[in-house]
Amino acid sequence: MRARDALGRPVPAGSPAAVEPVSEEALPPLEAVALARALMAQGRAFSAHEVFEASWKAAPAGERDLWQGLAQVCVGLTHLQRGNATGARTLLLRAAMRLEGLPAAYGVDVPQVRLDALSLAEAGGGTVRL
């Protein structure tokens, strides 16, 4: 696994900027949400995206939009952290479309996350309440 910094950018092996990688294995849903929230609190949206991406790939068909949408929100936040407003807007809008109409799940207020993503896409800053 390639060493990355907190914003998900590759760094040389052994770099002091490297952060602990997250597992590529899908976690049970409540554990995935808890880990993603903890990573987001540390400013590690890219790592939270990886957690949700693993859940998306392992999810039953009926839950894939939820996990993919949450992963896209985190990628949008990663773009914001990196200063890429255009990429952030694109991903946040894509996430909002994917999450549209989905109910709260696994302790995540999905409708609120969707509204937060739309707000961030328009304003270019703010927070998402996972």
Strand content: under 5%
**Helix-strand makeup class:** mainly alpha
Mean of pLDDT:
93
Give the topology string: H per helix, E per strand: HHHHH
The helix content, as a percent range, equals 55-70%
Q: Count the domains.
A: 1
Shape: globular
Question: Biggest sheet: strands, sense, closure?
Answer: none
If classified by CATH, what would the architecture be?
Orthogonal Bundle
Distance between the termini: 27 Å
The CATH H-level superfamily is TTHA0068-like
CATH topology: Hyaluronidase domain-like
Rg, Å, rounded: 14 Å
The unreliable regions are none
**CATH class descriptor name:** Mainly Alpha
**Total count of helical runs of at least 4 residues:** 5
How many individual β-strands?
A: 0
